[in-house]
């Protein structure tokens, strides 16, 4: 019984000490609670403010949400640490900071590729070398930007495939944005016969280049002769188009080919076929007739210096030849 009384007395003394400490800490508790509430309100205000500011610099909703969430969590974390220090829990704060540092270091090594793609995505979002809908070429991928994520850039190829290129590769590699200036030049290769008048060909081509879709009328069509080809004179037709998507380029090129071909047909201008000369008497090789005789022994090739064999007439059974029989029939 005495032991039970001593235990109750010990418990009561502990509770008394705790109550006294709570009473002494009441001002700090109220202050800590006030700091926590103010921190929560400040975090929400800063998050909304960051969202409004980021809209002016980037159109990436994923980046805006990420930055807003980062600001919100950072402000709340600082408020919690400050609240713990008000409650004189400095050792707890130190322990939490040390643990967070170790965890952050471990995660940094484990997810360094993800971190590199993430940082590259943030830089791309702020620099804006391209936007959704642009036609670009990077890392041997050509297509239209469909989405810009924090880890990848989604490129839709002209054949329909969706390619996800890591942001780090996009950031480190050369990139061509065909939609940046809104215009693009088409270099159309054409061949013409050596027999044609080149000045006339030039006039016919320029006259045919009308009513081409998206072609910029203010820029002159250029006809530039390039080289003397094996069977033709080769030249380029250069003209500029308004460019927003790849279909603009394809249609403008297709219509130009049809217009030039129609004009050439009307003006009797020849587009020559490639000419190839086959020489079977190559030094060190065999003559074609010899190879054919070896391959087909029964095949007889007639040449100019060989006389054709005379046809032999079969003798009839009565001993007369065919000519006597024919004369008798005529008489």
UniProtKB/TrEMBL annotation:
Residues 187-271 form the Mechanosensitive ion channel MscS C-terminal domain. Residues 113-180 form the Mechanosensitive ion channel MscS domain. Residues 71-112 form the Mechanosensitive ion channel transmembrane helices 2/3 domain. It is found in: Cell membrane. One of its GO terms (cellular component) is plasma membrane. The keyword Metal-binding does not apply. InterPro entries: LSM_dom_sf, MS_channel_1st, MS_channel_C, MSC_TM_helix, MscS_archaea/bacteria_type, MscS_beta-dom_sf, MscS_channel_2nd, MscS_channel_C_sf. It is a multi-pass membrane protein. Keywords: Cell membrane, Membrane, Transmembrane, Transmembrane helix. Residues 300-331 are annotated as: Disordered. The chain crosses the membrane at residues 22-46, 66-87, 93-111. Residues 309-331 have a biased composition (Basic and acidic residues). Pfam families: MS_channel_1st, MS_channel_1st_1, MS_channel_2nd, MS_channel_3rd. Gene3D superfamilies: 1.10.287.1260, 2.30.30.60, 3.30.70.100. Its main location: membrane. The keyword Kinase does not apply. Belongs to the MscS (TC 1.A.23) family. This is Mechanosensitive ion channel family protein. It comes from Rufibacter latericius. The lineage of its organism: Bacteria, Pseudomonadati, Bacteroidota, Cytophagia, Cytophagales.
